[in-house]
Amino acid sequence: MMAEGGRRKDAVASALPFLLVFVVGAVAVLGFAPFRLFPLPILTVALLLALWLRAGSPRAAAALGFAYGLAFFLAGASWVYVSLHEFGSMPAPLAALATFLFCAVLALFPALAGYACARTALPPPFALGLLAPAAWTLAEWTRGWIFTGFPWLALGYSQIPASPLAGYAPLLGIHGVTLAGALTAGLLVVLWQRVTARDEGPGDQRKRGLTFLVLPSAFCLLAIWLGGWALQQVRWTEPEGDPVTVSLLQGNISQELKWREDRVRTTLETYRTLAENAPGRLIVMPETALPLFLDQVPHEYLSSLAEHARKNGGDILIGVPERVPGGAYFNSVLSLGSAPAQGYRKSHLVPFGEFIPLRPVLGWIVGVLAIPLQDFSAGEATQRPLAVAGQRVAVNICYEDAFGEEIIRQLPEASLLVNVSNVAWFGRSIAPQQHLQISQARALETGRYMLRSTNTGVTATINPRGEVAAIAPEFTAAIVTDTVQGHRGLTPYARWGNYPALALCIALWAGAVVAGRRRRDTSRN
Questions:
Q1: One of 258, 346, 400, 474 is an active-site residue; which one?
Q2: Selecting from 3.40.640.10, 3.40.50.720, 3.60.110.10, 3.30.2010.10, what CATH number does the domain 240-484 have?
């Protein structure tokens, strides 16, 4: 009986770390929009790193990382279920399973980071202060491109725009902000271990040891945060030309009605009314605002929009599917008005939403999901900004603004960024606010205004410091009108992309391995 009770206690004790990281993984989501408690994700990562050190094996560390990641993504990306079930008509059990499996795949990345940290078996200062932050950042970077990428909820986004660490965005991009956050987490654990460590030596020896070990870690921690604050004071780009008045339209067309044939006329009239009441020199409609192929939209309707734009002395950008001879079609934004007609075609498509990957194997999903236009073609990877309303506008459509390295392709030529989205697919979830925070990061990285026109929200203008300047409430028909300034120049991130952040990660990893080996060799001698 006593042996059985002991085994039960051992089982509970061994399960407690996994339960703990599962809980804090879910809590970490409160650090992101709409909650924006930015210290929380860093503190939860710090706890995870501390548990990695005590994991006992690489497999156990990976399991802890997986538990953290699973809870984190189930809480933070639960809107995937809303999209699949409520608007994609996938049966609830299948949608729940698909969401769980999706989050489980995402959880593999923090699991891999944990495995890598434990596998190297470095002394704690080097594992926590150097290797773990690099591994975490590299895992998130990999998540951002593999299988077309899902960079959503990267640690760095939680710091945008209020945290001093946001100052690293124009220098190193969002992965640089992630690295700064992960370094903070690692150094916090190092400091905690130093201060609470028991030294069996004499009091003076313990005092000298603490001074030697604590002060460098505290200095590095302070330097990271003060450095971020100092970088926030830098203006990396400069104004160009005269300010321009912009009007961003939010039609608030519910997703279940958007593509119904009997609602097309109502949708067209909603956006015509909004456009005709918009005073901006540049007017922007959301993604696929017009639920028809361009060649199906009445000519007089387009003419009336163009006429109003000319009356305002500018142009209107229209989100509309565009069909070309041969049957291919694109998710496009087209301009009408004073300038010659121009267009942008979405190049980074959403798997299962805009195209079906591995169609011979996964084509059956088409019959399960009630999603219109599931076979978009991709536009060119590099497209020129649209010269409209006296500005050079870099357009990106919905999910594309989650990829900073793709947004900078149109720089330095572009003076403004425009994102058009339809996140009605995710209902009244936290996804629209998360997407707004992602757009704020892109404004910071590029040193330019970001203009967001969405179907149901969040429609807003964001200044080059990543701050929301004007915003419409979600789920209302609205016009956001603001005066914005075009900018020129290149931030370091716009010039070099992710390469400096990745180089730092590699340098930290290599430094940790070299320093750890030297420490082991010294201790042996």
A1: 346
A2: 3.60.110.10
